[in-house]
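Researcher: Going back to the complex we discussed earlier. I've cleaned up the inputs and rechecked each line, so this should be the final set. Can you rerun the prediction on the complete assembly and write out the structure?
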Amino acid sequence: MPKPKVALYWAASCGGCEITVVDIEAHILDVANAFDIVFWPCLMDFKVKDVEAIEDGGIFVTLFNGAIRNSEQEHLAKLLRRKSKVLVAFGSCAHEGCIPGLANVTNRDEIFKTVYHETVSTDNTKGVLPQPKTEVPEGVLEIPEFWNKVCALDQVVDVDYYVPGCPPQSNQVWAVLDHLIQGKPLPPKGSILGAGQKSCCDECPRVRKEKKLKRFYRTHEIIPNPDECLLDQGLLCMGPATRDGCGAKCVKVGIPCRGCYGPPPGSHDMGMKMISALSSVIDSEDPAEIDRIIATIADPVGTFYRFNLAHSILYRVQDDVKEKRP
Amino acid sequence: MPFEPKIVGFLCNWCSYTGADLAGVSRIKWPPNVRPIRVMCSGRIDPTFIVKAFREGADGVLVSGCHPGDCHYYQGNYKALRRYHLLRRVLEQFGIHPDRLMLTWVSAAEGERWAKVTNEITERVRKLGPLHLKD
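Model: Rerun complete. Updated structure for the full complex:
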């Protein structure tokens, strides 16, 4: 019996999700034994036409990492969706936009202006901008069209499962792959795999007290006590609004949770959950003082939505307020 | 047709909803632009509800609870107050005019005041115009 086929692809991503798959160490041989890897451009030489040649539904599972922000990534997402029985949004970018999704605070024109005109290292005297089609004597050259916004994978195609994390932790990746290798029954569609059912605070070993905050600190401003809750100490820890499953790695070494595992069960919008959580710990009933305390949060949207912006309810900055304010 | 703002009002059960009810039985006129939704406490209003209202077509959102010190649950309205201040800042960063969100206190005895605040937010949002959220 031929081995089931598996594919891995990357769209708008950094490559960390590919590394985390290799990070399962010797287990990668078990994966190679159990599956026939048919597409993995990061590690092996395949062409898109190889995938096109596979019959629809011929790939058992595709692990897709990266957000979608241009026409080529959209094409590959749709192609792999058609060819795969199971499509997994693998890693935070595919799950909810992640760091690339922060581009949704601006738009294509502004990004092009910065990248192709304004940065000090740009040497573009002719003011050339990338065009999807360019005519040259030899014919027409095409490059992918850049989108005005960044999308998570499930905003473009139907997704079966999600593996959160930036990147997903390798032990969790192996747990998911092992489940597939052993041929165990698949969980209900839409399940979040390789993560827990509670919040990051549940895994955090730090001691929590009743929180009362008169100001917030950025990480470089204080040296936190190694045993106490970071939020208690005024550091903006996203733990209360983040799903568990990572083993609370960051908080164990004194770095506040950034929120890469996405919102906990029952929530889709981490930023709004974080507003709720912080409003319970700010120690004031006076509007002017509340504003002063809130002013110590440097960048609320960038902090609360570091990983979740493209998948949040508002998902991009609007132009209801014309003048830009910091 | 002239623009009629759509406003979602989240009212606490103990003060503001009863206050709005009093405005009704006292036959005080207040603008039908505000669609009241009763919740048990202003502290129950998750900011998610508010942005979801904006996403689904509201031009403005009104949150109304008991006066400070009068909360049926002791301090739910203070929680609402802190959420409101933080949410306003986030809305502004999102490029949504923070004045589309209003927090107010209306007691069960203040039918007149309910009419006043609903008029106030309706006129405020009417001036701001319709909220068109981009895709």
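Model: Worth noting: Chain A has a mean pLDDT of 94.
Researcher: Good, that matches what I expected from the previous run.
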